[in-house]
């Protein structure tokens, strides 16, 4: 082994890596927010909807969870334009990530909703709360607290998965690395630094999520 | 010149399933050995062993599988090994599976009531017999469902090997798509094949989980 490591080109282009990291953060945050909205809708559809809705939600969940993300993004970026739906790479990436995390989050949120005791909902009805209020305060609020750890680790996994969007030339962190290594031929060094940056990102997200948990769920558990 | 998508192209894609399965099998087998080592290190009495296992798990769970593949691929070249996508993918996925299975199985080992270990101590049973005859058989029952669930994740993960040039199901799809330019058909078929591989395993995992929940309910 007579290889000399050369990190100079990597750090000379560090601004590109930071720009890529910013896109990764944006894509991840966007997919978390939109994915959660989809997931809440699907979870409600799956627990309370009519049979055809339940069937569609189930089909969506099973198809997404049993095919690789890489194929999903190929489908959205290469196959949908055949139907006249054409997106630029970053938009396609956001759509693919949202659709993907939506399916996983649906199952998590559904589990949360089903963990709520039926008596709670009946108590809400007896107290004269409206349906929307029951859903918001009696079902979603405690459900979210229960599933928060599962949901946020799914979010971190999503951020790591987002590195795959570099294959459709989205401009995320992994893509910035691809570009630098193709210009400077220091592949290992580039990917070593980027792997470190992903590690920092996942630690950062994890710290952010536990900070949110401490402030948002800082009320005592009911007995 | 654009080739028509026909029966030859279809079989080319279907035949590539064997490489997806081969890579999954190698990674799972290697991951089972590595995972057992990491799980045992994680519950070990020896502190440095416990912490190094934890560091390995944190690294593999905190970085993208794609980067792990790239590091294996380009790292092998630095070590002077002939770059072979098959070997690089097998190494990266084995290491990845070891870390994940290690963490899953640690949880299962810790789920075995502590009294079992303490009783073994009291009876003077040594480490080896305590693990092999008392703790692990009980942990194995808990471990089956999440392990099958991880196998699904691993099969899907092998699709990333296509990015470093290993010709498996996804790469075969890309090759045919480049020749025929019918992405809808090609990626539809590829997705369907993955689904056929993964769905039965997912159903199995869910069913075992449910059966286990019923069996342990008091």
The CATH C-level class name of chain A: Mainly Alpha
Q: What are the secondary-structure elements of chain B, in order, as H or E?
A: HHHHHHHHH
What is the H level of CATH, i.e. the homologous superfamily of chain B? MetI-like
Spans of chain A of 5+ residues with little confidence (pLDDT < 50)? none
Residue share in helix of chain A: over 70%
Outline the structure in words:
The complex is a heterodimer of chains A (223) and B (218). Chain A is mostly helical. The longest helix of chain A is centred in the N-terminal third of the chain and has 35 residues. Chain A starts with 7 loop residues before the first helix and ends in a 7-residue tail after the last helix. The model of chain B has no long low-confidence stretch (mean pLDDT 92). Chain B is mainly alpha-helical and 218 residues long. Chain B has one domain: MetI-like fold (Orthogonal Bundle), CATH 1.10.3720. In chain B, helix 3 packs across helix 5, helix 4 crosses helix 5 and helix 7 packs antiparallel against helix 9. The longest helix of chain B is centred in the C-terminal third of the chain and has 34 residues. Chains A and B meet through helix 3, helix 4, helix 7 and helix 9 of A and helix 3, helix 4, helix 7, helix 8 and helix 9 of B.
